[in-house]
Write a structure and sequence with these properties.
Two copies of one chain form a homodimer. With about 100 residues, chain A is α+β, with helices and mostly antiparallel strands. Helix content of chain A is about 20%, strand content about 30%. In chain A, a hairpin with an 8-residue loop joins strand 2 and strand 3 (about 55-60). The radius of gyration of chain A is 15 Å and the shape is globular. At the A-B interface, strand 1, helix 1, strand 2, strand 3 and strand 4 of A face strand 1, helix 1, strand 2, strand 3 and strand 4 of B.
Chain lengths: ~100, ~100
């Protein structure tokens, strides 16, 4: 059986009016990471209000903690975007009703 | 065309050793919210390290902001769990490669 994917959650503080610059850096990072072994997918969320503490929240899936930790994955990214709050946090899904039928 | 779902992200500070009590409260809240119009699904994430700032992160999907905001949705939940950092933040997905084929 395949191991449970690990979920990486990363919140970014982005000043109002700087969305496009952030998105460009994020795209470069994603393009690089998506070539790495163990990368599964990512979703980037933008706040519906412009002045949220965390303007963007990135939620990525990796095959395993080991795959994610195998080296400094973002070292090769030109113009890399640094998270405002240190490294991303690693999570596992403990409850999920998104695959169940909804009444 | 259906409107884009709104994503509700909620981070919880939970002291070490209190996971089970938190999960019980979370289950009650989820059971109630899942009966409300516009609720789509939720995923609860637990940190892989016990001392993370945010031990749990809940990510829920609602049909629309209006559906989510239609009243004080958690008022009817017995023993409701209050978020440690104020109300949840509302997001929309702006990038998503999780539905694309991976090479």
């Amino acid at each position: 059986m395949a191991p449970e994917p690990v979920i990486l959650i990363n919140a970014f503080e982005v000043a109002e009016g700087h969305d496009e610059a952030f998105l460009e850096g994020w795209e470069r990072t994603r393009a690089f990471l998506s070539t790495q072994p163990g990368y599964l997918s990512t979703r980037l969320h933008r706040s519906l209000v412009p002045d949220a503490e965390f303007r963007f929240v990135n939620i990525a899936r990796w095959e395993s903690v080991d795959a994610f930790r195998a080296g400094d994955l973002t070292a090769g990214v030109p113009g890399r975007t640094r998270p405002a709050r240190g490294p991303p946090s690693l999570y596992t899904v403990v409850r999920d009703d998104s695959t169940a039928g909804t009444p």
